[in-house]
Amino acid sequence: MKVLIINGSPRKDGNSAALIKEAVGVFDKEGVGYEIFEIGGKAIRGCEACGWCAKHGECVFHDGVNELAARLEECDGMIVVSPVYYGSANGSVVSLLDRLFYSSRCDKRMKVGAAFAVARRGGTTAAFDELNKYFTISQMPVASGRYWNNGFGRAKGEISDDVEGLQNARIVARNMVFLMRSVALGKEKYGLPEKEETVMTSFIK
Ligand SMILES: Cc1cc2nc3c(=O)[nH]c(=O)nc-3n(C[C@H](O)[C@H](O)[C@H](O)COP(=O)(O)O)c2cc1C
Predict the structure, then answer these.
(1) Of all protein residues, whose CA lies closest to atom 1 belonging to ligand 1?
(2) Does position 203 have pLDDT exceeding 90, yes or no?
(3) What pTM does this model have?
(4) Is residue 33 very low, low, confident or very high in pLDDT (cuts 50, 70, 90)?
């Protein structure tokens, strides 16, 4: 059992990293594996809608997204943590997730997702909703906590004073472990839900 964790902060050892530390403490205790992908200072391009991935099954750009797609295929759960920038998830996280979810061809159904937004003061619920949309368009169940997953702090490390935010991170991690184990048992007993051929309509046809 493995969780893929994306830290969307460009800051090393920032508040997002501290929140992740809290969640992985739970995984360590529960014997659940994890891998942390740090966006850091990586130059992650936005999607150019070139259509390459539809033909080749991977993104045309090689800046880490294709490697991440292979990891996504292997994992049972995925956590995305993003700092809030202007009331939204930060631009690099959005670029990465747009391309990862659009280009990767693996079956994401029933991989458990969880998102966290970290901010000084405002915009966490908007960013939280934004991040959850990647999971909920991919038939991924979402592990929730006892608040809309956020953490507060401005300077690096300030989040350590947000004891409620850190507690919530532990709760979400525990709920995620429970869900991943439940999905594993469910898959064994019933298999994944029946798949239908995709139908795509728009408002003009
Ligand atoms: C470009 C930029 C925009 C930001 N916008 C917001 C914002 O809209 N709301 C907020 O509360 N904090 C905002 N912040 C503060 C960060 O969200 C905050 O410092 C957070 O702890 C950073 O997380 P990190 O340490 O993981 O990078 C912004 C910071 C930057 C650099």
Answers:
(1) 85
(2) no
(3) 0.97
(4) very high
Which residues have any ligand 1 atom within 6 Å of their CB? 9, 11, 14-16, 83-87, 118-123, 153-154, 156
**β-pair type (77-85, 33-38):** unpaired
Q: Provide the sign of the torsion angle of the four alpha carbons 101, 106, 110, 115, taken in this order.
A: negative
**Complete domains list, the chain, with CATH:** 2-190 (3.40.50.360)
Distance 154 CA to ligand 1 centre (A): 7
- Outline where the chain has alpha helix (H): 15-30, 52-56, 65-74, 91-103, 124-136, 163-190
* pLDDT, tens digit (0-9, with 9 covering 90-100), for 55-112: 999 999 999 999 999 999 999 999 999 999 999 999 999 999 999 999 999 999 999 9
Residue 200 amino acid letter: M
Q: How far apart are CA 110 and CA 183, in angstroms?
A: 7
Q: Are 117 and 153 in contact (CB under 8 A)?
A: no
Both tokens assigned to 51: 């259509």
Q: Collapse the DSSP code of 114 into the 3-class scheme (helix H, G, I; strand E, B; otherwise coil) and give the result.
A: strand
